[in-house]
Amino acid sequence: MTVILLSFNMILSKLAMSKGTSFYILSVYSHAAASVILVPCGFLFHRSRLPPITFSVLCRVCLLAVFGCIGDIACNAGIKKSSATLGSEILNLVPGFTYLLAIIFRMEGFNARRVSDIAKSLGTVALITGASIVTLYRGPALLSEGFRADSFTVLLSSQHDWILGGILLSTASLAVASWNVFQASILKICPSEMIVVGLYCVFVTLQSTIVALVAERDMDAWKLQAEMGLVAVLFAGFINITFRLYVITWCILKAGPLFVSLFNPLAIVVSAILGFIFFHEALYLGSVVGTIVLVIGFYAVIWGKGEDYHRNKQRMVASIEESASYDAPLMQQNTEEV
Predict the structure, then answer these.
(1) DSSP state for residue 109 in the 8-state scheme
(2) CA atoms of 202 and 61, how far apart (whole Å)
(3) Residues 46 and 251 sit within 8 Å (Cβ to Cβ)
(4) Residue 181's closest CA among 60, 87, 268, 76?
């Protein structure tokens, strides 16, 4: 569900930006709208078990917002320069980046003799390779419409803009991966996910506002262009951020950051279909080849993660059985002494 919402958000953002809406302003208004919902709901929902919001927690959330601000602005800028389909493809770098960061911060282990770790490592390489292919190589068009775009359509970017869009989207992927890992560490000390997300949106609103004031000197840019700009802001604020981000945060709390990022490849198909419908985007050979490599990497990483889960589960069961077998003689001995 969250993947489908992300794909729709990319398409709506692309439509709004093609009508003149600034991606800086889009980030400010969407997070402001999400803050209006999440902050009061968070404190209301957790009023009976409100966690202590210490200065340390606020600093961590503020740093988390830096990753979110960079990721959101870079993602919108990358989509504007390229396409929503490329955005969904490049964002599949997130599992690879998340795995690397999880190893660096010792949230994931690595053993060169373990098949699951080798699979995750090779999958990460495949993800990076696939992302490079869809960015640097387009090739001939395999599927396209024989007419120009109408009022809901924009022309494909030049090769220069396409590569620049890929670089921006790769930067967004690294920021999202950092967000996933850092969010998991925050939830360990403050497990109230709705409050964390609400405070996060407030900080992103403040940070993106500062960036927008510096980048957009024309005050007219703060006016939403056409009705599509308002639709994109409302969808991004209330659906893509408020609902989707809360669900992702809850999943990180329950299943960990790597598991959450593994479902991003599903957005490729949805974005490709929506991009073809709304923008009449052609399907290029480079996108197909790169997507195949990305999907192979995706399944390699998720298989390795599944093997780790089953191995850890078996260890827990063995530990419980060993503890039970150790306690039984002690209970018997105590009974005999009585």
Answers:
(1) -
(2) 10
(3) no
(4) 60
Q: What is the pLDDT of residues 130-141, one digit of tens each?
A: 878 877 777 787
CB 12 within 8 A of CB 275: no
Residue 280 falls in which region: left (phi positive, over 0), alpha (psi -120 to 50) or beta: left
Taking the C-alpha atoms of residue 82 and residue 40, their distance in angstroms, rounded to an integer, is 37
* β-strands 283-284, 141-143 pairing: antiparallel
Residues 180 and 97 sit within 8 Å (Cβ to Cβ) = no
Q: Take residue 163 and report the two structure tokens written for it.
A: 């590569």
Q: Which two tokens stand for residue 7?
A: 């794909």
The encoded tokens of residue 308 equal 């780790």
pLDDT tens track for 36-49: 988 888 888 777 77
Name the helix (H) or strand (E) containing 141. Answer: strand 141-143
Structure token digits, residue 64: 């988390």
Whole-angstrom distance, CA of residue 69 vs CA of residue 104: 23
Residue 138 CA to residue 287 CA, distance in Å, equals 6
Q: What is the 3-state secondary structure (H, E, C) of 267-325?
A: HHHHHHHHHHHHHCCCEEHHHHHHHHHHHHHHHHHHHHHHHHHHHHHHHHHHHHHHHHH
Q: What percent of the chain has pLDDT over 90?
A: 14
Distance, in Å, from the CA atom of 246 to the CA atom of 244, rounded to the nearest integer, reads: 5
What is the helix (H) or strand (E) element at residue 126, kind and residue range?
helix 115-136
| DSSP structural state of residue 265 | T
Q: How many C-beta atoms surround the C-beta of residue 84 within 10 A?
A: 28
Position 292 scores a pLDDT of 86
pTM of the model as a whole: 0.74
Handedness of CA 94, 99, 100, 102 (dihedral sign): positive
Count, residues in the chain: 338
Residue matched to tokens 């409302």: 234
Q: Hey, which residues does 143 pair with through a beta bridge?
A: 283
**Nearest-10 crossing angle of helices 55-81, 2-18:** 60
Long-range contact list for 314-318, CB < 8 A, 24+ apart? none
